[in-house]
Design a protein that fits this description.
The complex is a heterodimer of chains A (about 80) and B (about 525).
Chain A: H1 2-15, H2 37-50, H3 62-65, H4 68-79
Chain B: H1 8-12, E1 20-23, E2 28-30, H2 31-47, E3 55-59, H3 66-75, E4 79-82, H4 89-99, E5 103-106, E6 124-128, E7 134-137, E8 140-142, H5 144-147, E9 164-170, E10 178-183, H6 184-197, E11 205-208, H7 217-227, E12 230-233, H8 236-239, H9 242-252, E13 256-260, H10 261-269, E14 283-287, H11 293-302, E15 307-312, E16 322-326, E17 341-342, E18 347-351, E19 364-369, E20 376-377, H12 381-387, E21 388-391, E22 399-410, E23 416-421, E24 425-428, E25 431-434, H13 435-443, E26 448-458, E27 461-470, H14 476-484, E28 495-498, H15 512-521
Parallel strand pairs in B: 1-12, 3-4, 3-5, 5-6, 11-12, 11-13, 13-14, 14-15, 27-28
Antiparallel strand pairs in B: 1-2, 6-7, 7-8, 9-10, 10-20, 15-16, 16-17, 18-19, 19-22, 21-22, 22-23, 24-25, 26-27
The chains are: A mainly alpha (about 80), B alpha/beta (about 525).
């Protein structure tokens, strides 16, 4: 829970500047324009710093970044 | 050659009719189709009353259809004005009000969202290139017989080289975007030079990653047609995911790429650079912002046989004004990569505040003259007169110079080095952003007494932070939502912070350095 809430918090407040009321676990982030090319760079920086992990190029794919749930799963797997 | 028209690149092309001129990975158009589609579109535009130098607003997605669309507009002697479909309606309204388009060109139902920004009578032409080209005007399908365009009419051009070819809108400090007017002659000078300098040939496949409403795309759009090569358009799905972008470049066998520096930074940071990747790519041009030297070093270490060029040029000078072919990786990670020397025909001078050239080696404001210079901003005579001035400098004859607002110095070897801005303009993903435009948008929100926006560095990327003085307690989330209705997403501050009083230095000037420090200390929204 903590991972997913932390990611939700960052995306809500710092990537879409609080303009989206609530982002659900399964909301499509890219299709809905919640995350764009600037946003994904910021998100990557946040995740790597917050969870002390490195996201590799082959993990930086749409499947892993489509929703808050998939991002959270990826981070959980990396933390082990 | 520069005394000709941009669309004549296509007419003069030696490429065979069935060669692919542009592709977006899904849809491709051959040189023959480009000619046929653009002739049909020009005929339709003229039928709808579009005349010489009328503006045509392009509200289109990022597909291969954009290329026949702009060619059709130019063949109708008109001027294309690309807008970002992702911008908020208020910005479209400002652009529509400013350039008064004769018609709007779109490629699908996406134009419905534009309707609210358009005057009622404005024709909206939707183009469809599945099979042959077809048109729907104001929702009514047009049949070719009714168009009277059987057989295909080859347009006679009435425009002249000093006529405008396009208008691009960039951020304006007064709170309104400003339209930079670019002529056929401007583009021909730039593209003729670029194709020769970068050795672009018909075998070349050029990757396009820059948005069409951004001047970096001028290179992508016209170099392939001039050279008889192929444009390979990448979409945001590619540029957001480095693996996808590299895969696309490999599939398309891309040979040349002019990319925004931040995208090169991102690819390196994502760790996808590998010596056995993108083997066909041999020329990499980067610009739009300063690339960290350590990023360039990494690219050059992984790909020692590729050529790298740092390119520089403001929208007001059409394209690349300066170029630095990088011979060796930078010595130190903290070095600034030079922007090099002025390109053919362009002249540069570094001036002090009194418009006197600074002594060699000192920092001054970079001013440009030459055939790339725009004639200025649409409907903004005062601003144009302020930034485009006529002067005799360094013994050169009286001519027009453009003040870029960029600060630079000359190294001992004569190469120029960009060091920063003299004003409140920042670059976000290569986009020019005037902090004043965001501040004006904030001031338009009920309850905001004063507002200042600063840019701080966050992990190598600039981040916008807004400070507001309130007249009543505001919901900051709602304030940001309102901002998103007025300005494009990349201009919306990532954070808003309340402040009792904006700090000021002597004479009331805002103390931006103090605000930047405060922004760095407050890493989270002060709800």
């Amino acid at each position: 829970m903590e991972i997913i809430e932390s990611i939700r918090g960052f995306i809500s407040t710092e990537i879409c500047s609080g303009s989206v009321q609530k982002i659900d676990d399964a909301d499509l982030l890219i299709e809905n324009g919640i995350i764009d090319s600037v946003g994904i760079m910021l998100l990557l920086g946040f995740i790597e710093e917050k969870f002390a992990i490195t996201i590799d190029g082959d993990e930086l794919i749409p499947e892993n970044f489509s929703t808050i749930a998939t991002i959270s799963t990826l981070v959980g797997k990396k933390i082990g | 050659m520069a005394d000709q028209l941009v669309q004549q690149y296509l007419d003069e092309s030696l490429a065979s009719e069935d060669k692919v001129a542009c592709t977006d990975g899904r849809k491709s158009h051959t040189y023959g189709q480009l000619t046929h589609f653009s002739n049909r579109l020009a005929a339709l535009l003229r039928q709808w009353g579009v005349g010489r130098q009328d503006r045509v607003l392009l509200f289109m997605r990022r597909t291969a259809d954009f290329i026949p669309a702009i060619l059709g507009v130019l063949k109708a002697d008109a001027v294309y004005v690309p807008v970002d479909p992702k911008s908020p309606p208020e910005r479209w309204s400002q652009i529509v009000d400013d350039c008064s388009p004769a018609v709007v060109l779109s490629d699908g139902p996406s134009a419905n969202s534009l309707k609210s920004a358009l005057p009622l009578h404005m024709p909206v032409i939707q183009i469809d290139t599945d099979g042959d080209i077809s048109f729907t005007v104001n929702g009514i399908r047009q049949f070719q017989d009714e168009m009277g365009s059987h057989p295909e009419i080859i347009p006679t051009y009435r425009n002249v080289p000093d006529d405008l070819a396009y208008i691009l809108y960039t951020s304006g400090s007064t709170g309104k975007p400003k339209g930079v007017m670019i002529s056929h002659r401007n583009i021909r000078n730039y593209i003729d030079w670029a194709v020769e300098y970068f050795g672009i040939r018909s075998v070349d496949r050029i990757l396009g990653t820059a948005p069409f409403h951004f001047d970096m795309s001028t290179f992508d759009l016209w170099c392939p047609i001039k050279a008889g090569g192929t444009l390979c358009l990448a979409n945001e799905g590619h540029t957001m995911f480095p693996e996808k972008l590299l895969g696309y470049m490999e599939d398309q066998k891309v040979t040349i790429w002019k990319g925004i520096s931040s995208l090169l930074f991102y690819l390196e940071r994502a760790g996808v650079l590998n010596a056995d990747r993108i083997p066909d790519l041999d020329r990499v041009l980067f610009g739009g912002d300063a690339l960290p030297a350590r990023t360039l070093t990494r690219w050059m270490e992984v790909f020692p046989s590729k050529s790298f060029f740092n390119v520089y040029g403001p929208t007001e000078a059409t394209g690349i004004s300066f170029c630095y072919p990088v011979q060796e990786p930078p010595d130190n990670p903290g070095d600034r990569i030079p922007i090099g020397l002025p390109c053919k025909g362009m002249q540069a001078v570094l001036l002090d505040q009194d418009q006197i050239p600074v002594p060699f080696g000192e920092i001054g404001e970079l001013c440009l003259a030459g055939p790339g210079l725009s004639r200025g901003y649409l409907n903004e005579a005062d601003r144009t007169a302020d930034l485009f001035f006529r002067a005799e400098i360094n013994g050169a004859p009286l001519q027009t110079w453009y003040r870029t607002g960029d600060l630079a110095f000359q190294r001992d070897d004569g190469h120029y080095v960009f060091v920063g801005r003299g004003d409140n303009q920042v670059k976000i993903m290569g986009y020019r952003v005037e902090l004043g435009e965001i501040e004006q948008a904030l001031l338009g929100i009920d309850g905001v007494r004063d507002a200042v926006v600063v840019a701080v560095n966050r992990g190598g990327l600039p981040e916008l932070v807004g400070f507001i003085e309130e007249t009543k307690t505001l919901d900051l989330g709602q304030a940001l939502s309102k901002l998103r209705e007025r300005i494009p997403g990349y201009m919306v501050p990532r954070r808003l912070l309340r402040i009792a009083e904006i700090p000021r230095c002597g004479r009331g000037k805002v103390d931006r350095a103090a605000l930047r420090n405060m922004a760095m200390e407050n890493s989270h929204v002060d709800g």
